[in-house]
Amino acid sequence: MAETMIPKATAKRLPLYYRYLNFLANSGTTKISSTELSEAVKVDSATIRRDFSYFGALGKRGYGYDVMDLLKFFKKILNQDRLTNVALVGVGNLGHALLNYNFRQANNIRISAGFDVNPDIAGTIQSGVPIYPMSDLADQLRQQQIEIVILTVPTDAAQGITDDLVKAGIKGIMNFTPLRISVPGYVRVQNVDLATELQTLIYFLDHYGPTLKDTDEDE
């Protein structure tokens, strides 16, 4: 299948669909309609049909979607059959929480290395993950063939460390710092600002109440 550029909002929903399809398959369900899927994942059926349409004919009119066929398709699209090792840079309070979590609900993602400037942490194993000093950053990323990093460092250190990550060959950064880091065009950054997300939620609750549908469609 030719590579298809899909909207960012659609890409964010694909793992949600995949998780629920896994649940359906494990419960013995063989087919599902877009309406039934909509009720389960809380995404309107028109959006689901539009999301699926980017990948061709995934269902049949009057029949719905074959659960196993969809599951196999999204498993391939999301690379669920391939383990991806990621690194955590910055093992503070948030970093420790991420190490404890370590994507246990995902079978294909694992934090395999951590890095920190604190000599009391570097050289130890935290939540089963080895923590290296920052001086080992480039060498370990290359040796372990890690291309994706979670960044949870202080804001004033974020850009400098990002520059080092780019030099080490990193292709993707999940940025938990408030700073909007600068990277070359071939590096993708996913910004996760918990304070901003919470403030946005508070704003919508104050102005529209709890029944407003999520309209964050990057399409």
UniProtKB/TrEMBL annotation:
NAD(+) binds at G90, V91, G92, N93, L94, G95. Residues 16-55 bind DNA. It comes from the Bacteria. The keyword NAD applies. Keywords: Cytoplasm, DNA-binding, NAD, Repressor, Transcription, Transcription regulation. SUPFAM superfamilies: NAD(P)-binding Rossmann-fold domains, Winged helix' DNA-binding domain. It is found in: Cytoplasm. Pfam families: CoA_binding (PF02629), Put_DNA-bind_N (PF06971). Residues 79-180 form the CoA-binding domain. InterPro entries: CoA-bd, NAD(P)-bd_dom_sf, Rex_bacilli-type, Rex_DNA-bd_C_dom, Tscrpt_rep_Rex, WH-like_DNA-bd_sf, WH_DNA-bd_sf. The keyword NAD applies. Modulates transcription in response to changes in cellular NADH/NAD(+) redox state. Homodimer. Belongs to the transcriptional regulatory Rex family. This is Redox-sensing transcriptional repressor Rex. It comes from Lacticaseibacillus jixianensis. The gene is rex.
